[in-house]
C-alpha cells in the first residue's frame, strides 16, 4: 500500500485536498482512513479524534493494482488564526480469509501530517536546550511561533564544532506554540552546562542554533 502525498499543507482559504491510496499487492485489500487532531504537551505528541476535519470515504476496498482518492476537508467555519495540525492515519485492515488460514498477517500503517495555515503565518520561533543523558542528549525544542518546524539530520555540536550526538533522517516535528523533546544518541560529554550548537535540516533548509546545555 502506498499513500501520496506524504504531507498535506493547505493555506486558507483552501480547505480541502485529496490523498491517493494505491494497492501494489497481488490481492485485494481493505483500507481504513481516520483523522486526528495533533497536539504536543510537555514534549509529547497527543492525538484525539478530529471534530472539525472530515475524511471520505473512511473505509474502502482496493483491487490488486487499484487506487482510491480520499478527500480531506476542514469543515469548521472558524477562520484559521494559527496553523492547525492533524494526522491522517491510513491502515490496511487485516484480511479475514488470511486470519482463518493461519497465515501470519503484517498490515501497513501510514501516518500523514496535515496542516491548515492562515494566509499569513509568522513562522517558527524555536529555542533549544540539550540535557546530557546516559548515552546521549535529551534535546528539547520550544516553539513560540505559529508554524511547525520539521527537524531531520540533527547533530548536537560543541562550541568548537565537534559533533557529540547525532540522529540521521527524520527526527520529528515541533508544532506551533508547543514543545517537543527527543533523545539523540552520542557521547554526552558536556555536563558542566554552558552552550552547544544544534545543527539540523528543516523544510526551509539547513540551520544552526545555539542551545542551552543543562547540567546532567
UniProtKB/TrEMBL annotation:
Pfam families: PapD_N. GO terms for biological process: cell wall organization. Residues 2-119 form the Pili assembly chaperone N-terminal domain. This is Gram-negative pili assembly chaperone, N-terminal domain protein. GO terms for cellular component: outer membrane-bounded periplasmic space. InterPro entries: Ig-like_fold, PapD-like_sf, Periplasmic_pilus_chap, Pili_assmbl_chaperone_N. It comes from the Bacteria. PANTHER family: PILUS ASSEMBLY CHAPERONE, SLR1668 PROTEIN.
